Amino acid sequence: MTATAFGPAQLLHRLRARSGSAAQSPITHVEQVTARAGRVAEWPEWADPSVRESLVSQGIVAPWQHQADAASLAWAGTHVVLATGTASGKSMAYQLPALSRLAADPRATVLYLAPTKALAADQLRALVRLGLDGVRPATLDGDTQREEREWIRQHSRFILTNPDMLHHAVLPAHARWGAFFRRLSYVVIDECHAYRGVFGSHVAHVLRRLRRVAERYGSSPTFVLASATSGDPAGSASRLVGVPVAAVVEDASPRGGMTFALWEPPLLPPESSAPPTFVPAARTPASAAGSSSADSPSAGFLSAGSASEVDPDLDNMPPIRRSALRETADLLTDAVVAGTRTLAFVRSRRGAEVVATMARRSLDEAVPGLGSRVAAYRGGYLREDRRAIERALLSGELLGLASTNALELGVDLAGLDAVLICGWPGTRASLWQQAGRAGRAGGEALAVLIARDDPLDTYLVHHPEALFGRPVEATVLDPANPYVLGPQLCCAASEAPLTETDLELFGGAAARATVEALVQQGALRKRPSGWYWTERGRPDVDLRGTGGAPVQVVEASTGRLLGTVDQGSSHVMLHEGAVYLHQGVTYLVDELDLEDAIALVHPEEPDWTTHARDVTDVSVVRVRSYVDAGPVGLFLGDVDVTSQVVSYQRRRLGSGEVIDTKPLDLPVRELRTVAVWFTISPQALAAAGVETADVPGALHAAEHAGIGLLPLIATCDRWDIGGLSTANHPDTEAPTVFVYDGHPGGAGFAERAYATAAEWLRATREAIASCACETGCPSCVQSPKCGNGNNPLDKPGAVRVLTTVLAALPPD
Ligand SMILES: [Zn+2]
Ligand SMILES: [Zn+2]
């Protein structure tokens, strides 16, 4: 059977048929993404002929309309962000004006910034292929040798680097780079949606420092940014660079047709689902009143490289739905039986192995030997092995592949018949990156998103407009975060004394207050000509963290460093006895030494997982803004969060059965951050039918789902966010739900939640109400990171709470 014997419609039909009657169809929506013909534009008049000819020689006959629009804005000196789909040719939009300028002015220079070394290397290859004289493009990164660096500084006119390099090496030595800065005409910021959260806030200041230094040398470069499609690209880009940025968002590149199905695994029949096994939370000081539930964030979880290792399908929440992994394996099996070349994306490495193994087993049962046509593929394999697997899939020797991440795949691996996406990959950009692997020129392709047990996944498969309509998630960052602003102002002052004008550049009032605090601390000194950095050395500032040395995870027997976890997360992830996952291998923590910031671990495969329990309190420091909506109040403000991990549970893998609870002796942690919170009067709750005894559970359930849905409107991960719900908070004197940013000083997530509260809470209510479970499940109100063992939770009560809040709040 050949791969082309089956179209996407027939395949989808076949997949649907497997799952029984239409009434219980797991398919919640089918979107026909119609093929789109490209819309070309004329080459702009201003484009340099030699640059144009080089591009033509690379097969670009004419620019797409969006490329021409963005390029012409940039040529005219307007800062511009191009936010269009993957493979829409964003590089050409900055190459054309930047290279034309280099051709017109033989001394002009261009700076290109990429979030990864790989991307910069990729762009360098593209520039070299254009073969333009006198440009001398070069990458500058941590691996660049000293002599090479010297050559680049003196001769290259198109430097490709990253924000870390700019921050650590170029800006502090700006005098040596004077000639480069003097003629700096363009700054290109590629994949700018990567600059989010605390890292994004740091990068925002690095760019302000860059603008200041360029101005010292008499240049004011035009910024050209490339972004994945997201909500409010102009706003996000303006915040990042600190100047108004125009957006070009209409994608005029051609696209093949695609059938995109949304799939929700069915609920298990009641007899086969495990009985609820959660035991009530231990009575702790904070919950002694019986009314308060806390959920600590694991800030830095993502940067520690471990978030993708957390896979609820492999975790121990009691199964209520059929697992997304099993469902994906079955779909992969059916697709391979039908002879279609199919790629399945799974978030964790272990998950990818599980999917491949399950599919191979069922295929061998159906047709002995067919199982060998399926393989798993993940990072950590040798490059040659990965390329061999890719070739086998392209040739049709392999029919099915389960993989962790689209970015690890070779660029040639495209044109497949179908793509299965197991679980929402986090952002719309990743979703389309993965789906985009399917589809051949002129052909039709199939993509299926299979929802995992998660409130956001549940919401999305029931709200296709959130996926296929206007994007709402915005790239969030907060340059005013004092924990970022302080260190960055020190860096700026060490590069050149800060002046009154500079304070405007770095954020006005917030910058002034921070500078005054730095003078008090002795870090800066005020002189008539400005504020000076007082120390000899340069400030030691890490763009990817906010203070506190990360904890090193070390294998005790070999001394091998496995990875690092930031301090904030270490109590939850690395307490003594914790199960720690690293690149699909399971370790047990023997010892956490906070003084030396080291956790010693050994490899072990226990049949249980661990869940830390904590006691958390939130106190309000300052209200920044609020909405008084009668019985409901909505607030944004600064809070102090104190939390202490007090014990952990061991739970059986698969069933979630609690084996035991062990005490821990860890210090209290304090976090000053930004929170959004809402209050409801007890009368309004009573009127909505929430009994007094059910108030804690209703608020707690609403808080969980709210945290789960926040990534819909802000580019965060639920692990970046913490929460606390209480039937009576001493500061608000009312039933309250707090949702706070897990990063010191805040990373902008709470602000985004406050600004779009009605949209966010409406989606939260929808996610809970549309879940078919009866009393709450991981798809709606249960949380894999609950510090209270998911107790108490009241699903119907949560819907009533949110309905009451939404009725009172003004619409967005
Ligand atoms: Zn549910
Ligand atoms: Zn909780």
Which parts are unreliable, with pLDDT below 50 for 5 consecutive residues or more? 1-5, 272-290, 299-316
Largest beta-sheet details:
7 strands, mixed
Radius of gyration: 27 Å
**How much is the average pLDDT?**
87
If helices are DSSP runs of H or I spanning 4 or more residues, what is the number of helices?
25
Strand order of the largest sheet: 1-9-15-14-11-13-12
How far is it from the N-terminal to the C-terminal residue, by CA? 54 Å
Which small-molecule species are bound to the chains here? Answer: zinc ion
Specify the structural class: alpha/beta
What percentage of residues falls in helices of 4 or more residues?
25-40%
- The overall strand count is 28
The gross shape turns out to be globular
What portion of residues belong to β-strands?
15-25%
Structural summary, described in words:
By secondary structure, the chain is an alpha/beta fold. It contains 25 helices and 28 strands. The strands form 5 sheets. A 7-stranded mixed sheet has the order 1-9-15-14-11-13-12, sandwiched between helices. Helix 3 runs parallel beside helix 4. The two termini are 54 Å apart. The N terminus is likely disordered. It binds zinc ion (2 copies). One zinc ion binds next to loops.
Quick structural summary:
This protein has 812 residues and is of the alpha/beta class.
